[in-house]
Specification:
The structure is a single chain. By secondary structure, the protein is α+β, with helices and mostly antiparallel strands. The protein has 2 domains: 2-76 and 90-94, Arc Repressor Mutant, subunit A (Orthogonal Bundle), CATH 1.10.10; 103-230, Muramoyl-pentapeptide Carboxypeptidase, domain 2 (2-Layer Sandwich), CATH 3.30.1380. It contains 10 helices and 7 strands. Strands 4-5-7-6 form a 4-stranded antiparallel beta sheet, with helices on one face. A 3-stranded antiparallel beta sheet has the order 1-3-2. Strand 6 (213-216) and strand 7 (225-230) form a beta hairpin. Helix 6 packs parallel to helix 9. It is elongated and about 65 Å long. The N and C termini lie far apart (77 Å). Residues 1-13, 28-40 have a biased composition (Polar residues). InterPro entries: ArsR-like_HTH, Carb_Metab_HTH_regulators, WH-like_DNA-bd_sf, WH_DNA-bd_sf.
Amino acid sequence: MKTSQSAARSASGNRPGGTSGPADPDASTRQRVASSILEQGPSTAAALAERLGLTPAAIRRHLDMLTERGIVESREQRVYGARGRGRPARVFAITDAGRMDFHHAYDDLAIEALEYLSETGGSAAVRGFAERRLAGAEQRYRTALAETAADSPTAALAEALTTEGYVASTRRAVAGEQLCQHHCPVAHVAERFPELCEAETEAFARVLGVHVQRLATIAHGDGVCTTHVPDLTPRPAPDSHAPADPNREARG
């Protein structure tokens, strides 16, 4: 699949375990090996050799390099039923780091698309995209706040963010709370287009009904996306027991 093959470039380039410097003549072959494992699942060296039309020796050389870089890992193949004689076969699977590496390649595609949008429509077009992207999420956050039994609206928002992959939590701070997002699925893209972070911050403010302040973002190199939420003090409701104004009718 073309998308996965382009994604696998990171597995042999400057991503986890990659090297900089002169072009690696074997890089494209390692791309094919990594892509095949990603698409077909854990595979033996023999299966990869047959699938890609390479010799077992060549496949093992590429697997050794991918393993060294943390892109794949080897493990004993699961066998159901009676095991035959001889050494158990070993399979190679994509690691979490390797899988994340492929995700970064999709981020690169998103960056290219937003760069084109910026060139053709200007910053307003990028801003419009960021706001539209958050519109659906904002509605889900509102629903979560309305239905939750969390101790605070900020905690409810953190729960909603966690369900969408942001691994969020809250902690007390001076005159309020801090909303902490320990993972950001779009950090790589937001590094280039901060409009994504800005739109998200504004969505938080609307959902919580209070002005919030972004203190740190993963996209800018911080370890956690942190947003300060001041103490939520609801507006006082009209006092129905207050004495009536005796002059009200006279003024009417």
